[in-house]
Amino acid sequence: MQTILGTNGQIAIELAKELKRNYTTDIKLVSRNPRKVNDTDTLFQANLLNAEKTAEAVQGSDIAYLTVGLPFNTKLWIEQFPVIMRNTIDACIKHNTKLVFFDNTYMYL
Known about the structure:
This protein is of the alpha/beta class and 109 residues long. It is 39% helix and 19% strand. The protein has a single domain (21-103), classed as Rossmann fold (3-Layer(aba) Sandwich), CATH 3.40.50.720. The protein has a 5-stranded parallel β-sheet with strand order 3-2-1-4-5, sandwiched between helices. The longest helix is centred in the last third of the chain and has 21 residues, at 74-94. It is globular and about 35 Å long.
């Protein structure tokens, strides 16, 4: 299974399409309010600030793609992004899942 964490942004949507088109139909989309991109997607609701839910989301995944983004707000990034990263890394270690990280694009603004 391929799992995309943070699935409502442009990168996640294009990644989900590309995975289905060229790799697998076994795709799990994870966010606070997940929406299907492909008809075969599995949805999992989780807030990645919650370590337990993040671990549940990653369970059973061969690869997890972290594509989560936060609003363009420095305070939120400082407070929340390290927690999201730690939860994701810990979940991947726990479940022996490979992690692919897509960095944000705010630096290009």
